[in-house]
Task: structure prediction
Amino acid sequence: MLFQAKRVLPFALFSVLLAGCASDNIQDIEAGYDQEAGAGPMAMAHVNHVAQSWMETPRQVGLLTIARSEATVASTHADLAVQRSSDSDWVKMHAVHVKHALEPKGKGPGKGYGLIKAVKEVRQHIKLAIASEDTSDAVAFHGEQIMMSADSVLARIETLDALASQIIEAPRGTDFTLQAEEMSDLTSKILLGDDINGDGNINWEENESGLDQALSYLEYLQEKEAAYHEQPITSRENE
Result:
């Protein structure tokens, strides 16, 4: 992906970004910044569906907000499964709850929207923002980070969904100690990311990012666009 030539960041914005992006390469952040051209209304409409409000979600919250909410529900039930992993019926029940948070069918815990749907729509709307005629370097650069984070999350969700199904379909009385721990580990990584290469950082280019990193990239994008347009930033919503 091509970006505008690197320009000098305004000091105030540089300070904000440097403080918030300690694990990111500041040269990459500069490379994605164009002082002269913020995104237009079409691109920002898609960004705002991810960040602020989407008409189909419960309470019309942003898509990334609902994704993080459903992921938290899945993580809670995976952790509960670990607490009594010797009780196969207990683990099976919470595996059902995990699957419901991923893709709701009927009544169950969570917001009723589904983590899979939410993450796929985060990716789709960011893709549309990048493809818009009035996109900006900030949207293109941080949008790519968000999309790759979504891809990493979806890969972990696929593994989690298969694991939960395996637990549900296994005979009663099965020892689920290892499966419950793996289910808990996966839900944690969906939210927090995973330092796969052990370098002390969560890197979006190495399929390590989770939903928390996607939120950080979204906030960096909003900070840059706010600087372009001199408008207030709307960031972390109540979940």
In short: The CA atoms of residues 43 and 131 lie 8 Å apart. Residues 137-169 form the longest helix (33 residues). The radius of gyration is 19 Å. The mean pLDDT is 85.
